[in-house]
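Re: beginner question about structure tokens

> Can someone show what the tokenized structure looks like for a real chain? I only ever see the sequence side.

Sure, here's an example I had lying around. Input first:
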Amino acid sequence: MSKGTLFAFIAGICVVIGSIVSATDRPLAFIDVPSLIIVVGGTFVTLFISYETKNALQAIALMGKAFKEHRDSNASLKDEIGRIVRWAYIIQKNGLQGLENEITDNLREDNPFLAYGADLVVTGYTGAEIKQILDHMIESQVERDRRQTDALKKMGGDAPAFGMLGTLIGLIIMLGNMGGDPSAIGPSMAVALVTTFYGIILARVIFIPLATKMSVRNDVSIFKYLLQSEGLVLLAERKSPRYIQDKINSFVDVSEQFSIDRDLNSVPSSDNQG
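And the corresponding structure tokens:
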């Protein structure tokens, strides 16, 4: 569970509820089931109209993933660099057979992209061929991730629109009853505006923030893939461990750079490293 995301979400809800409670003695006026049905129902209906069912369900599932810990965001890139450098020493000593022994079931489960790339190196592809294959994988992953986050962003745009639709419906009903009791106009207007309130809350507290978070997380993962891809290409080209260290270190901040002289002995094996 991502405690930061959960805390921020709860804090956002508390800010809204707190402002309502402190501003009025009738907080229940902000609860209107028909308005909620229009906004929530309409937003999800347009999601399934706009996207294939599989993609729509993936976008909904993505909201739940935002509240889980993101391994790539918490992982140290220094460890990734260290692993590639250690593999370079293994290849120098034992050849590609040594690298093949490093591709464990744990690695395939925890880091399938790296395991797949290592398989390509073991197979004997050239650096250029590996780069081309992995670039295609990364591009495909970017497209899949973008499709899901775009769906969430679309929901963030649709929710206020359905809020406005609900408000228009309420106003039409209110104007149709204006020949009756004038004192009912105020409460009717309040109910009409509640749908706009729901639309804005859903868009700005749920859909758009979660889409932004997942987009940022995807960028972190893609950067890690690019770093790993560069290291795998260098392994295939049989570059020296120190050259690989210096080349990949150029990808990261100085605080996360790996040093063979300082850090090599602390790099865990693939069985213990995800």
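Each token stands for a local structural state, so reading them left to right follows the chain. The chain is about 80% helix and 0% strand.
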